[in-house]
Specification:
The chain is an alpha+beta fold and about 170 residues long. The protein is about 40% helix and about 10% strand. The chain folds into two domains: about 1-90, no CATH class; about 95-165, no CATH class. Strands 4-3-2-1-5 form a five-stranded mixed beta sheet. The structure holds zinc ion (2 copies). One zinc ion binds next to helix 2.
């Protein structure tokens, strides 16, 4: 299976029917029940989706940083059972600026900086590719969590620094 990132920053795996059978799946979409040869395994949902349902979900999905432990738990399990054949992650995460991504229009009702739904005083989604590329375009480097919460009031910053620490992420200014 191939690992990739969704538009808002979740992980998804492109898998074949054979691969999903290793997890006890039948190659049937968990959303529309259509039998498929290929589909997408989505750790945050713990579901296997056909390409149509996956595309629909990817467009509508909203990133919730507080749910990432669910994704992490499921993806460790999947990766322990189905070997990764190739990873697109590196290419997406750095080195090559892809200008077309910067022009991407963010979904309605989401923050224009990071394409994630959050209140203005809350941090941007540092994991969002939209945010990462926009930031890179402006500053010539990749954003850190400290950058993502620069605009936040002190007490919200402190809250996030603590919450991220619990997930093993150290925020340094
Ligand atoms: Zn489907
Ligand atoms: Zn934002």
């Amino acid at each position: 299976m191939k690992k990739q990132k969704t538009k808002v920053g979740y992980i998804a795996y492109q898998t074949t029917r054979e691969e999903i059978c290793r997890l006890g799946g039948l190659g049937i979409c968990d959303t529309c029940n259509s039998p498929e040869g290929n589909g997408y395994l989505v750790p945050i949902l713990n579901r296997w989706l056909c390409p149509r349902c996956y595309e629909k979900w990817e467009v509508e999905a909203v990133y919730y940083a507080e749910d990432i432990h669910i994704e992490q738990k499921n993806l460790k399990y999947y990766e322990s059972i189905i070997p990764l054949t190739d990873s697109n992650e590196k290419a997406q995460q750095g080195g090559h600026l892809k200008p077309f991504r910067i022009l991407g229009i963010t979904p309605k009702g989401t923050c224009t900086e990071c394409a994630t739904k959050h209140a203005p005083e809350q941090p941007h989604n540092q994991q969002s590719l939209t945010y990462q590329y926009k930031f890179y375009d402006k500053h010539g480097r990749w954003p850190t969590w400290a950058d993502a919460m620069k605009h936040c009031p002190e007490e919200i910053k402190n809250y996030w620094v603590e919450a991220l620490k619990e997930h093993g992420i150290e925020v340094t200014a």
